[in-house]
Amino acid sequence: MIEFLNVWKAFSGQTVLRGLTLSIQRGEILFIIGASGVGKSVTIKHVIGLLRLDRGEVWFDGQRVDQLEESEFYAVRRRCAMVFQHSTLFDSLSVVDNVALPLSKHRKLSQAQARERALGFLDRVHMRDFAEAFPAALSDGMRKRVAIARALTLEPECLLFDEPTTGLDPVSARRVDALIRELKETLNVTCVVVSHDLTSIFSIADRIAFLYQGRVHALGTPSELRVSSDAVVQQFVRGLSEGPMETPGF
Ligand SMILES: Nc1ncnc2c1ncn2[C@@H]1O[C@H](COP(=O)(O)OP(=O)(O)OP(=O)(O)O)[C@@H](O)[C@H]1O
Ligand SMILES: [Mg+2]
User: Which atom of ligand 1 is nearest to the CA of 211?
Assistant: First the structure.
């Protein structure tokens, strides 16, 4: 579904991605993990053209996308939606209007039709009861679920999640995990999840890519990574389970 081939990316002299290669299968839940600043968010942003690589190739469903014009990315973004780390809801719009917005804009539905469809998506994330609330009145976990509902409106084949559970209480975090799993199982949505959340990583990932020094340093199933003899992987996984998120020296 998504392929990164020898991707290089630098920002004003600081090289972040150094020949990153990664192949993501259709319908899988692939987690991208690694220390803060290693380039996880940068990596996924390349899929939908939010960043442009310096060298290498990025493919989406058989189409090379790294060389597309900005206008050509619209089609990719309809098929592959991103749920950003921080809420990107419009504070001045109610929950249902936030979710209805892409429907009236891109699907050319009437306001009433778009709201009706939006309610269906809110149901899916268990937020229908809050349809008329405004984002400011919601918890972080609720806002995240609304953002996921909004990302679902265009029925993407692929979802990119940037730290979907960071900052959430454990109950909300597990709800988001369950939702991601459900999207994969019921709709065969390919999910790419950037995360530091060990519980999510080891409970819902099909495979995990561990980024280190600008490349995929280790790739495997959760059980493969758990027993990895690689010292860097072990140190990282132990560091996460012991609490501190930032691992100096990575
Ligand atoms: N638009 C940008 N302009 C300049 N530098 C950037 C930009 N985006 C990212 N960077 C730099 O690239 C590096 C990797 O950033 P990235 O956001 O991918 O880290 P990350 O792995 O997602 O970390 P975290 O876990 O903290 O979110 C950082 O040093 C960051 O400062
Ligand atoms: Mg990030």
Answer: 21
Task: Please report the atom of ligand 1 found closest to the CA of residue 39.
Answer: 18
Any atom of ligand 1 within 6 Å of the Cβ of 25: no
Residue 3: beta bridge partners?
Answer: 23, 59
Confirm whether 74 is domain-assigned: yes
Q: What does the block give as tokens for 53?
A: 């690589």
Each residue's pLDDT tens digit, 185-197: 998 999 999 998 9
Q: Can you give the CATH number for the domain in which 161 is found?
A: 3.40.50.300
Quote the number of domains for the chain: 1
Q: Determine whether the shortest distance from the Cβ of 39 to ligand 1 is under 6 A.
A: yes
Task: State the Cα angle at 44 between 41 and 46, rounded to 5°.
Answer: 110
**What is this structure's pTM?**
0.90
Asked if residue 41 has its Cβ within 6 Å of ligand 1, the reply is yes
Structure tokens at 65: 């996308």
